[in-house]
Amino acid sequence: MATREITMESFKDTVESDGIVLLDFWADWCGPCKAFGPVYEQSSDAHTDIVFGKVDTEDQQQLAAGFGIRSIPTLMAFRDGILVFNQPGALPSAQLEELISAVQDLDMDAVRTEIAAAQAGDGQAPPQA
């Protein structure tokens, strides 16, 4: 599956769906973004069960600002509508594959329990892949 453009209008429906959604926040003028693009695209071809979205931070400034994007590329991973990974920087192919495996291996019931506990005020932070 090829990557798809994510906008303010498509964001909510995309990330709140079941399964894994990866988002690449990027800009055309960004050298590291351009270097990461082919790695990301190749991974999208290999993992047709995962949604690979791209957010153009120049075109979607409100969306980028809403996530506090300060450095690009920034990669985010959502699983079943829950943000489980958020990190700036381009990843080499092997690290991107490790991230995908880690997100696939998450016990989402445990993640939801930890989030509920954190929201109840016991100070536990949700796990990150």
UniProtKB/TrEMBL annotation:
Matches recorded under SUPFAM superfamilies: Thioredoxin-like (SSF52833)
Coiled-coil ranges (or none): none
Assigned keywords, A-Z: Disulfide bond, Electron transport, Redox-active center, Transport
Domain of life: Bacteria
Keyword Transport: yes
GO MF term list: protein-disulfide reductase activity
Keyword presence, Transport: yes
Pfam families per UniProt: Thioredoxin (PF00085)
Thioredoxin domain mapped to chain residues: 1-105
GO CC aspect terms: cytosol
InterPro entries: Thioredoxin, Thioredoxin-like_sf, Thioredoxin_CS, Thioredoxin_domain
Function: Participates in various redox reactions through the reversible oxidation of its active center dithiol to a disulfide and catalyzes dithiol-disulfide exchange reactions.
Annotated family: Belongs to the thioredoxin family.
The name this protein goes by in its record: Thioredoxin
